Amino acid sequence: VGEIDIKDVVRIFENPDSKGEDIVALNKLSLIVQPGKFVSLIGPSGCGKSTLLRLIAGLDIPNEGEIFLDGNKIVKPSYERGFAFQAANLFPWLTIRENIAFGLRARHEYKKKKDDVDEYINLVGLKGFEKAYPHQVSGGMCQRASLARALVGHPKVLLLDEPLGALDAFTRMNMQDELLRIWEEHKMTMIMVTHDVDEAIYLSDQVVVMSPRPAKIEKIIDIDLSRP
Ligand code: ADP
Ligand code: ADP
User: DSSP assignment, residue 35?
Assistant: First the structure.
C-alpha cells in the first residue's frame, strides 16, 4: 500500500500582481509513485515541486485532474500522509513535545502511543529539548521536530519538503541515514523535494527531474539500489 497516482493535474494561481497573467504552476502533470518507493523531486526553483507536494498532502486542491492514494481520491489532509515542511511550521505556543504529539492528541491516540512520541524524539536527536518552545531552539531542531511529528502517526506516505535543508552537514548526514533506516523499517512511500542532487541519488530509488514552470516531468532516473 501507498501507491500515489497523479493524473493530469493542473494548478493555476492568480498572479499577486493583479495585472499579471495567471501563474500556471503545473500543467497536466501525471506521475505514478509505486508503493514503498523513495522518490526525490528535483528541478529549478519555482518549477512547482512544493505545489505538487501540497496537492498530494491535500493541503491544496488542483484546478483540474486528480490524485489518488491506493485508489482513493485525495481531497483533504490525512494522517495517512505525513508532511514535514521546509519551514517546520510548528505551533509557537506548544512545546517541541506537544508539537510532535499534536496529531496523536487530535486523534485521541496519545495515551496509547506515548512511547512512540519518546521514540521519535530520541530518533531525531531532540531528547532534552522536549519542554522547549520552537523559538528557543535552532531552525534545524525545528525541522527535526517537524519530521518527528510527521512520522509519529506511522503514515503510509511521507512527504518531505527539503526536510534537511536547514541542517549543518554533520547532522544532515546522520539524518539522511536515519531517513533510510525509517524507510526500510516502515516500508512507507517517501516523496522528497530536495535541491541536493547527491542527497537525491544517495537516498532515493527514483529521481524525478522536473522542468521549469509549468512543470513537466523531464525525466525519471532509476537509481541502482546497491547501497553500501
Ligand atoms: P518550487 O517548490 O519548485 O520552488 P513552488 O511550487 O513553490 O515551486 O511554486 C511554483 C510556482 O507557483 C512559482 O512560480 C510560485 O511563485 C507560484 N506559486 C506557488 N504558490 C502560490 C500561491 N499561493 N499564489 C501564487 N503563486 C504561487
Ligand atoms: P542544528 O544543526 O539542528 O541547526 P545547531 O547547530 O544550531 O543545531 O545546534 C547544535 C547543538 O547545539 C544542538 O544539537 C544542541 O545540542 C545545541 N543547541 C542548539 N540550540 C540550543 C538551545 N536553544 N539551547 C541549548 N542548546 C542548544
Answer: T
Rounded to whole angstroms, how far apart are CA atoms 168 and 57? 27
Ligand 1 touching residue 46 (CB < 6 A): yes
Centroid of chain to Cα 122? 20
Helices and strands (H and E) in the chain: how many = 6, 10
Beta strands (DSSP E) in the chain are 4-13, 23-33, 38-42, 64-69, 72-73, 81-84, 157-161, 189-193, 206-210, 217-222
User: 138: Cβ below 6 Å to ligand 2?
Assistant: yes
pLDDT tens figures, 62-104: 999 999 999 999 999 988 999 887 777 899 999 999 999 998 8
Residue 215 has pLDDT above 80, yes or no: no
Ligand nearest to the CA of 96: 2
